[in-house]
Prior knowledge:
The complex is a heterodimer. Chain A has one domain. In chain A, 80% of the residues lie in helices and 0% in strands. Chain A has one helix and no strands. Chain A is rod-shaped. Chain B is mostly helical. Chain B has one domain. Helix content of chain B is 76%, strand content 0%. Chain B is built from four helices and no strands. Chain B is rod-shaped, with a radius of gyration of 26 Å. At the A-B interface, helix 1 of A face helix 1, helix 2 and helix 3 of B.
Amino acid sequence: MGNSKKHHNGDLDIKDLIKLLESENNQIESSFENIEGLLKRNEKLAEHFLVIRTKKGKY
Amino acid sequence: MGNCKKQDRKRPELDINELFKRIKFESKQFQKTFREIEGLLKTSKELMQRLLTAKNDGLLNGNTFFDVAATPPAPVAPPATPAAPTPVTPLIQIITKDIARIARQIRILQQEQLTQIRRALISMVFLQTATTEETERLAIAVLFSAVGAIESIRSQLQALRDELDADIVLLLGIAGEL
């Protein structure tokens, strides 16, 4: 979007790339935080089904 | 040819606009896949909760079933499975185990994605300050390898999303029968 008109020379565009990647990095970090709870919850619930097995089973 | 110092267009092997587009595209795909995975994880969480409640209420015929799943080699006491057990619980175990695997892999890919983005970032910082052609070439190689890895991680994440989706369809089928 927007600022791709800075064509002077490689350097400015590299700065744009750096900015893009920095914002990517932040975005991914925050979406990871959001999803971590859900991942844990899913793993715990899944474990529940297996824990029952080990209790009632022969292990 | 040769060593004429035509430096007006620096780094001819690096098409920044192209790279910008690729990263932007990956970013969009990644966010989209991530939102979808988030939605699927919510659904699978709810489904597992429902199934667990059903199990606790004895609706899944769990106890006998878990014994069957264990299949002990002991010939003395074959697992007591008197009435026809609903073939539900072992199936749920397989599916939920798979969901747990997917969750683990998602976490690994997330970390990997961050690593590669930082790798790309570092290579660009190097590129910016590179004083020799050698350093430039090296930085560009790292940059492309990182972007390639980012693309590969995104497609792996999409595959995990599809696998999660398939697991949920199965769980939905089971939950629908309760």
